[in-house]
Amino acid sequence: MSIIKATLRRELLIAFRSPGDIINPLMFFVIAVSLFPLGVGADQAFLSEIAPGVVWVTALLAVMLSMDSLFRADYEDGSLEQLLLSPQPLYFIILAKVSSHWLVSGLPLVILAPVFASMLALPEGGMFPLVAGLLIGTPILTLLGAVGMALTVGLSRSGLLLSVLILPLYIPVLVFGTGIVNSALNSIDISGLLALLGAMLVLALCLAPLAIIAALRISVSL
Amino acid sequence: MLTVNNLYCERDERVLFQNLDFSVAEGEAWQIQGSNGSGKTTLLRILCGLNDEFTGEILWRGIEQRKARQDFNREVFYLGHAPAINKALTAKENLSWYCASRGLTNTDQIKTVLNSFNLYGYEDMPCYLMSAGQQRRVSLARMLLSQAMLWMLDEPFTALDKQGVLELEVLLSEHAKTGGSIILTTHHNLQMDYPLQSIDLDALAGLVAA
Questions:
Q1: pLDDT number for residue B208
Q2: For chain B, how many structural domains are there in total?
Q3: What positions does the domain ABC transporter occupy (chain B) (predicted)?
Q4: A134, A177, B25, B62: which has the highest count of C-beta atoms within 10 A?
Q5: Residue B87 · residue B106 · CB < 8 Å
Q6: Domain around B189
Q7: A78 near B CB under 8 A
Q8: In this complex, is the C-beta atom of A17 within 8 Å of any C-beta atom belonging to chain B?
Q9: B129: which DSSP letter?
């Protein structure tokens, strides 16, 4: 599928030419997580207890923050119209677009998470479940966020509306994500929870692009 | 090729057009005329399938346009007000993605087409460094790369210099002469050596019946 390759190439080129859009959410994640020990005190036991929640919540907010750059530029310069008029299967174009967005916004969070989790004194046994959960969970967040973004891209100042729309959809991912880490810390088998999160990802991969396409058609026809 | 039956569209209590019937055949060039705000852009967006707030029928080669979307999209080129060019990318990068998005493998033509639009030496310049006229030329280069039969052009002459306007007029009449079709809107006085048919939207406008 040359269209997937071409779209990935285009999106990654754009991302690396204007790195501000990538770095802002990442900086937010770094700053928010590092402020916690300063705010709640350096008590190791307490920090290790809140670590999974803190990392997951800030990662979730960072993903939401990064969504704004997904369709905005394409909407404003008219590329989105051309994309919708493409004779190629839109499903794959959109999937490639969202995937490349995750590669530059979600994947760095997953890579950075262990560093900040150990800063928050997360026990070693929680490291793998945290990273595995984020690796499966952040693509779901990106896909769901893309649906919300596609719906609101035509509106100016859509930030608040976007969060109201997609936060309820983010909650299950957050609950399962932190649940995985806490279960592992309490020596409970996590394979079931990971499989559930994986099932959510498969569902999102299948259905979210269809919702995104429908939402983009509405946004462009306004 | 494209047949429009009984098209009706209203916006903000105003009828933009009603009972609009026309049919665009191969080798025909149509101009949509009308004053500012008369709905020229709306009509073009309806025809190319970006706007669905209308009643009536649009047929593409006898099949309803929405059902023939893939064939329709392959054979139709739409040029909107927005350049559809990402400014962080170079002209070549923009166009090669465009070709891929249309399933074309004619990327080796990009350079030739850019040269024919007087953009020799600008292939690898990021588009934010280009002037408005040069960006418009990059958008227009897509027109030749698209291999589409029907060109729908919304104000294609905007920002072009005199030479560019002349060249575009030649391109348009060449396209029509070789069997292609054109629907365009413009306020520019066209000097094409090709017969133009026209739709006057001012004559079709009205108020919504209470």
A1: 63
A2: 1
A3: 2-208
A4: A177
A5: no
A6: 2-207
A7: yes
A8: yes
A9: G
Q: Quote the pLDDT of residue A158.
A: 79
What per-residue confidence (pLDDT) applies to B209? 58
Amino acid at the residue B156: P
**Chain A contact present for B87, CB below 8 A:** yes
Res A191 pLDDT > 90: yes
- List of long-range contacts for B157-160, beta carbons under 8 Å, 24+ apart: B157/B186, B157/B188, B158/B81, B159/B132, B159/B133, B159/B135, B160/B133, B160/B136
Residues A21 and A138: their CA atoms lie apart, in Å, by 17
A94–chain B nearest CA distance, Å: 11
- β partners of residue B64: B59
d(CA A198, CA B186): 53
pLDDT single digits (tens) B168-186: 999 999 999 999 999 999 8
CB contact under 8 A, A14 and B89: yes
Residue B90 pLDDT > 80? yes
When comparing pLDDT for A177 and B106, which is higher? A177
pLDDT score at A1: 73
Helix/strand/coil for A69: coil
The confidence score (pLDDT) of residue B207 equals 65
- CA dist., res. B174 & res. B182, Å (int): 11
Which residues 6+ apart lie within 8 Å of A191 measured at CB?
Answer: none
Write down the pLDDT at residue B89: 92
Distance of CA A218 to the CA centre of its chain: 23
Pairwise pLDDT comparison (B203 vs A133), residue with the higher score:
A133
Count of C-beta atoms within a 10 Å radius of residue B12? 6
Edge-to-edge order in the sheet of strand B55-60: B63-64, B55-60, B2-11, B14-24, B206-207
Which letter, b or e, does each residue of A89-106 get, where b requires 16 or more Cβ atoms within 10 Å of its Cβ? bbeebbbbbbbbbbbbbb
CATH number of the domain that B74 lies in?
3.40.50.300
Among candidate residues B90, B84, B143, the one with its CA nearest the CA of residue A75: B84
**Helices H / strands E in chain B, number of each:** 7, 10
Residues A93/A7, Cβ–Cβ less than 8 Å: yes
The verdict on B54 touching A (C-beta cutoff 8 Å) is no
Supply the pLDDT for residue B76: 93
Taking only the tens place, the pLDDT of each residue in A127-150 is 999 999 999 999 999 999 999 999
Radius of gyration from C-alpha coordinates of chain B: 17
CA distances from A79 to A50, B84, B201 (A): 43, 4, 28
Of the candidates B70, B83, B33, the one whose C-alpha atom is nearest the C-alpha of residue B200 is: B33
